[in-house]
Design brief:
Layout: H1 3-9, H2 19-32, E1 37-44, E2 50-56, E3 61-67, H3 75-89, H4 91-97, E4 99-104, H5 109-113, H6 125-130, E5 147-149, E6 152-154, H7 159-171, E7 175-179, E8 188-191, H8 199-208, E9 225-227, E10 230-232, H9 236-245, H10 251-255, H11 261-265, E11 271-276, E12 280-281, E13 290-294, H12 295-320, H13 329-354, E14 361-363, H14 364-394, H15 400-423, E15 427-428, H16 431-454
Parallel strand pairs: 3-4, 3-7, 7-11, 8-10
Antiparallel strand pairs: 1-2, 2-4, 5-6, 8-11, 9-10, 12-15, 13-14
């Protein structure tokens, strides 16, 4: 398999496809390859849309790939757009890998529709925040698989999660690829097992597309590092233990959800891959140059910045909560993120204060993660708060308090977004590059998993 040739073959994609456009493309592919493909309904979304599984026939090994596990993450849907067509067109590639492939293009189609306002651009951090939606943890398809661990008991999988469970139980995949992506930074990987032969390939692929590895702070403090920018899969059990060890009295109440598809599929010995990548980057995301502050101080200052955002939002919420009428996915998310944010940050403060590795000079990448990356992600929650208020007004709520809070929230969103963009030396990354990294990393991992099984 010539990965670099595949990398050169990735086409340009000027925009992201909507849910309806993805469905139409699937039907075109099915019509073009009726003997090679199958398409069947494996469930429904919470709003009643069909969840379709596209199968490309091949060898005895089984691969399962699903996009949009979080609905603000459409890069994977575009990766599936390319990969499904490539596999149909390239019999040599199919035969070499030896898999039958199963795809769900977007597993949370309802939530993805709520993000489509930014899919066609302009691709700026502020416009992303204006139209951003990410569900509460208990509404996330990826994190509502059943689990029993210590005091954590969760057995309320969403309809979409149940569909994933049925597919995993039916095909018992040798390889599973959950197509996530981050928002700002560089490329990094999660794998179910150490896989040293893959690390050089993982490190090389981003460079083929002009992208950087993310060498700043890991996504969570308890992530196990296997190699630079390569981590073991994070789990609800590890999250629980981390919260417990860092002073959270009831980790189950803070987690508010279940476990992931990676933990659920582990009973089949599936090799699991996630490739996280951003929409935007900055030259500092992988800089290992020392900064003029301790890593600990950078982490604590980043947490202070998050506190400032949430304190402002809590105060405005107090002025309007008596007048709110709607319960929507957006309002559920805002309320849930505000409810757990303080517990999460308290645990991270305790960890940062006690962890030996934080008492050293920070790298420029770590400073960037804490002082610019964290405010970027709080801007997204702020955008949902403004959107929640806009939904109330659009539904006819006449409350003067809601109107005033909405005006203030929109002004703050625009002002802070402008200031943040001025602090960043950012670029919007080409969709082609993002698709290319996910495609090449996925194919390399599929080949590795096949060889490991043979071994």
């Amino acid at each position: 398999m010539d990965l670099q040739q595949i990398a050169r073959d990735i086409p340009d994609y000027p925009v992201f496809l909507t849910v309806d456009e993805l469905h139409a493309s699937t039907r075109q592919l099915r019509a073009a390859y009726p003997d090679l493909t199958e398409l069947r309904v494996v469930g429904q979304t919470r709003r009643g849309d069909p969840l379709e599984l596209l199968t490309i026939k091949g060898g005895e090994r089984q691969a399962f790939v699903f996009g949009g596990p979080h609905p603000n993450e459409p890069i994977g849907t575009m990766t599936i757009e390319y990969l499904t067509r490539r596999l149909c067109e390239d019999a040599t590639l199919r035969d070499e890998l030896g898999y039958t492939w199963h795809f769900i293009k977007t597993i949370d189609a309802d939530g993805m529709r709520l993000n489509e306002g930014w899919f066609k651009g302009p691709f700026t951090p502020t416009n992303y925040a204006r139209h951003f939606f990410r569900p509460a943890m208990f509404d996330q398809v990826e994190w509502t698989f059943p689990i029993e661990y210590k005091t954590l008991r969760f057995d309320q999988p969403l309809p979409e999660t149940q569909a994933l469970m049925r597919v995993i139980d039916e095909v018992k995949p040798d390889f599973i690829y959950s197509l996530h992506n981050a928002g700002f930074g560089g490329v990094y990987y999660y794998v179910s097992d150490p896989c040293a032969p893959l690390y050089p390939t993982f490190h090389a692929i981003p460079d083929w597309f002009g992208l950087a590895l993310d060498l700043g702070e890991p996504e969570v403090p308890f992530a196990e590092s296997y190699a630079p920018a390569v981590y073991g899969m994070i789990s609800s059990r590890a999250f629980y233990d981390y919260l417990e060890q860092n002073g959270v009295p009831d980790p189950a109440a803070a987690i508010q959800s279940g476990t992931s598809s990676a933990e659920y599929s582990s009973k089949y010995g599936s090799f699991f891959l996630v490739v996280e990548m951003p929409y935007f980057d900055d030259p500092r995301v992988n800089s290992q140059e020392p900064a003029a502050m301790l890593r600990r101080d950078a982490i604590l200052r980043g947490l202070d910045l998050q506190d400032e955002f949430d304190d402002w939002t809590h105060a405005r919420m107090d002025t309007v909560k008596g007048d709110l009428r709607l319960e929507t996915p957006v309002s559920r998310a805002v309320n849930a993120f505000l409810a757990v944010g303080q517990s999460y940050r308290a645990a991270e403060r305790q960890w940062a204060a006690s962890a030996e590795d934080t008492n050293r000079p920070a790298t420029q990448a770590e400073v960037f993660s804490n002082l610019l990356g964290k405010p970027f992600y709080r801007l997204l929650t702020h955008g949902m708060f403004a959107r929640m208020l806009a939904d109330e007004i659009a539904a006819g709520n006449p409350s003067p308090s809601i109107a005033a809070a909405h005006e203030e929230a929109v002004t703050r969103l625009e002002d802070f977004g402008t200031r943040l963009e001025q602090q960043l030396d950012y670029r919007a990354l080409p969709i082609r590059s993002l698709v290319g990294v996910q495609t090449c990393a996925g194919l390399a991992t599929a080949a590795y998993a096949a060889a490991s099984r043979r071994g």
